[in-house]
Design goal:
By secondary structure, the chain is mostly beta strands. The chain is built from two helices and 36 strands. Helices cover 2% and strands 51% of the residues. The strands form eleven sheets. Strands 7, 8, 9, 10 and 11 form a five-stranded antiparallel beta sheet that branches. Strand 28 and strand 29 form a beta hairpin. It starts with a strand and ends in a 5-residue tail after the last strand.
Length: 424
């Protein structure tokens, strides 16, 4: 550290110390009014310090000089290592931990690029309608930003590496028909996806297109021209819209959860049924005593031709239950949905003895444990009833399920059993 100060033509001794260490102050001599001296600060920590100087001026008064000085940090830096990195597409970010690697090489590494239905905006799409097939097509171009950062062992992040690109995609959706005064159910979808709904107005009037959960709707004429767009508030409260006779299409998007869509010229509607399932008993209730409740068990949309609910009943298999309440002088209720998936087909057992093969399976229904004989094995696509003769080498790796189950109800398990015989 070099000290330098100027006194009014001062000659003689002066005193100096560093920071508040006045007890170890040192005295030096100056032959002129200019001070210049090398001070050893080896014993001080790196960083900013204060040099204090006291000297006697020409008028015999004492003057103080304070000069900030910095001791550089000459400690060699530890060799950095990588403890992690993060990458993302648009707002989505994935964090990856590393075990103090000196370096990492990405050679032809493929990151899971999200589909446009996950990140793009439906509002950016251009829509067209094929009346013959009732198909709604969306074409769009979406910006996709890829970013990446690395974290060192000092917990500091590197500069952001990024790459911007544009992804074009086309989506075709078959329109689902919505009847006036009725409802349909729509499943939750990605932020960049949509449902297509078609409805026909036979009588010009003011109608309400209402959604049971938050969603957005864009209305189109049959020729593909856009009519208007509904916000989340519009769809849930029911925005009055005048329709002439004709066919219309609705693009429904931004569904954060499963929803039900209803079209009616009346704002009043039947209350939504409530589905309860406990101890293998299914019950459906509605707060309107005059309502008729119809239901399905296979996931299809219920209507007035579906099974009429009368009382609670036993249900001992997987099912997608949907129910709707219908009454006079008001619109149908929203569709209620309840998923039962607590029943699973256990892994089958396969035994082989004396050229006979036997399949078995245990199914647990509540407190009853029984051996099921109505199994199917896909190798021959017929019901397994009894032991089968096997006179050749082969494998028994079969997919089993219960007779009468719909594809949605089947929960297959595989059991492997390789067979080998000497018989021809």
């Amino acid at each position: 550290m070099t000290q330098a100060a100027t006194a009014d033509t001062l000659q003689g001794n002066y005193t100096y110390w560093i920071d508040n260490d006045i007890q170890n102050a040192k005295t030096a001599q100056s032959a002129t009014g200019n001070l210049s001296n090398e001070i050893d600060i080896a014993g001080y920590a790196p960083g900013l310090h204060t040099l204090n100087i006291r000297m006697k001026a020409k008028d015999c008064s004492y003057k103080f000089y304070i000069a900030p000085s910095e001791k550089p940090d000459t400690t060699p830096e530890a060799e950095a290592s990588l403890i992690g990195y993060k990458y993302g597409f648009n707002e989505s970010v994935t964090n990856v931990k590393l075990d103090n690697l000196k370096e990492i090489t990405f050679t032809n590494t493929l990151f899971d690029i999200p589909a446009p239905t996950e990140f793009a905006k439906v509002e950016d799409g251009k829509f067209s309608i094929d009346k013959a097939s009732s198909t709604v097509k969306m074409s769009r171009k979406s910006e996709l930003n890829f970013s990446m950062q690395f974290q060192g062992s000092n917990r500091q992040w590197s500069n952001i590496l990024h790459k911007d690109t544009v992804i074009a995609d086309n989506i075709n959706r078959q329109a689902v028909e919505l009847k006036t005064y009725s409802s349909i159910s729509l499943d939750k979808i990605g932020r960049g996806d949509f449902h297509a709904v078609k409805f026909t107005i036979d009588k010009a009037n003011t109608y309400y297109l209402v959604s049971s959960k938050a969603s957005r709707i864009a209305l189109y004429n049959e020729d593909g021209t856009e009519m208007q767009r509904f916000s989340e508030t519009d769809t849930q409260q029911g925005k009055a819209t005048y329709f002439n006779t004709g066919t219309y299409y609705a693009v429904v998007y931004n569904l954060g959860s499963n929803t039900s869509l209803r079209l009616s010229d009346k704002q009043n509607a039947m209350p939504t049924p409530v589905i309860n399932y406990k101890d293998e008993m299914l019950s459906i209730s509605c707060t309107d005593a005059d309502a008729k409740v119809y239901y399905t068990l296979d996931g299809t949309e219920p209507n007035a031709q579906s099974q009429l609910y009368k009382e609670a009943f036993k249900l001992d298999h997987n099912a997608t239950v949907k129910a709707i309440a219908i009454g006079k002088d008001c619109a149908d209720s929203y569709i209620a949905t309840y998923q039962i998936d607590s029943y699973a087909v256990a892994a089958p057992t396969i035994s082989y003895s004396n050229l006979h093969i036997c399949f078995g399976e245990a199914l647990h229904f509540g407190s009853i444990l029984r051996r099921c004989q109505d199994l199917l094995y896909t190798g021959r696509n017929r019901a397994y009833q009894q032991e089968q003769s096997l006179h050749r080498s082969g494998g028994a790796d079969e997919e089993l399920h219960r007779e009468g189950d719909s594809p949605a109800q089947r929960l297959p398990r595989l059991a492997g059993y390789h067979l080998s015989t000497e018989c021809g």
